[in-house]
Amino acid sequence: xxxxxxxxxxxxxxxxxxxxxxxxxxxxxxxxxxxxxxxxxxxxxxxxxxxxxxxxxxxxxxxxxxxxxx
Length: 70
Prior knowledge:
It is a single chain. By secondary structure, the chain is mostly helical. It is built from 3 helices and no strands. Helix 1 (about 1-25) packs antiparallel against helix 3.
């Protein structure tokens, strides 16, 4: 169950990063970079949510090391 939720969060994270990259090429983001020097808040939000989702999803999917009993 934990791995399936992790895979779902990982997929959503990747989708948010892709949406953020697509949004960064939009006309509104280009004007924002031209006048303010930074992309729009929506673009930054998508990218931040995507990275957080990827990190959380990967940590849930990645196998944990268990201490060895010697």
